[in-house]
Amino acid sequence: MAMRKILSIVQDADIYRSSVINLQASENVISPNVRRALASDFASRYSHKENGVNDYGGTKYAEELEESVNELASEVFNFKYADAKPLSGHVAAETVLAALVKRGESIMKIPERNGGYQGYLNGYLPSLMGFRSYDIPMKPDQAIDFESFEKTIDYIRPKVVILGQSVFVKSYDIPKVRELCNSVGSMLLYDASHVMGLIAGGTFQKDIGLCDVVFGSTHKTFFGPQGGIILTNEAEVFDRIEKKITWITMDNFNISRMAGVGVALEETKKFGREYASRVVKNAKDLAKELDGKLPIKYSPWFTESHQVLIDEEGLKKDGYDTIKFSEDLEKNGIIVDRIGRIGTAEITRMGVDDVQPIADMIKDAYIGKDVKERVNKFVSNMKMRYYES
Ligand SMILES: *Cc1c(COP(=O)(O)O)cnc(C)c1O
């Protein structure tokens, strides 16, 4: 096979992605200013400052950047300490767990069948790091089963409890979880990967400050490039986490990526509240519009986040599954993931305040109509907002 020039693949990907409606819950678009930061000279530089000494030279601006980004993150998320060095949400989780959980100890997490992150399942991070992972008991409607949790947490006595999900439509009762954690001496962690932008905008899990450590991705509902961030109010905990970064979970931190996260934080500071409330409104509206024509979960409240969840059992009755559903929409230029989530972060960033036309196109594509032309027309009217042009 004749290999194409890499830059022509890159160009085609850019053109393709700007010609479709992206409803993937794990993704977002980055602004031209974030792109500018990503493509800067920082992309090939090093900077390691520890105990006041940098191992590299020429780092004057890299040091200024690191300090400014972390300070901005601490301000935007309202936590005393922040570190945006982690290369991804997964690396942020790994770093926090390396600092707080020893070999042989236990964690409790949201089970995968209730939307929990696979990385915390036995076989992934727990087997890499030598600890055991147990399920937090859940009710079918994405709520914690506290009666059962009270008993299991007392029996397991986990070092940490990790809240947060990848399939995620509802905030937790954090004061109640906090109380249970306190009763057995567990720390409370929150993996906010999916909802980081909603938390920054104050529309989801408003009491997040009650957790010991919050961490997650910078690129799902948040405006950043792919990366991770760690937040805490506790100096001693932060210190332990910081010690697990350099030469343990990573070496360089991709300075240009961190610069991109910094720009995204500035955008969030200015536009984050409006953005986050519109994302959630769009998700609720989209769920309402689709319900009845498509099997949508959790009627009548549907969602409190950026995600609308499709009920796979219902899809099967219509001769569909989540894979075929996604493939059929993709043929029409509408992108959703293959596991039944529809996300409204990116369309909201792209200026969509009325989701009715999108709902109509999805409904029509679902019954086999060709909606490509309508998608093209809709896309040509989308325009990115929430950045300084
Ligand atoms: C996506 C996700 C991660 C992993 O994030 P990356 O940034 O892709 O490494 C971790 N936890 C949860 C809950 C997620 O949804």
TrEMBL record:
An example molecular function term from Gene Ontology annotations: pyridoxal phosphate binding
InterPro entries on file: PyrdxlP-dep_Trfase, PyrdxlP-dep_Trfase_major, PyrdxlP-dep_Trfase_small, Ser_HO-MeTrfase-like, SHMT-like_dom
Cofactor: pyridoxal 5'-phosphate
Boundaries of every Serine hydroxymethyltransferase-like domain copy: 5-349
Database matches in Pfam families: SHMT (PF00464)
SUPFAM superfamilies listed in its UniProt record: PLP-dependent transferases
Protein name: Serine hydroxymethyltransferase
Origin organism lineage: Archaea, Methanobacteriati, Thermoplasmatota, Thermoplasmata, Thermoplasmatales
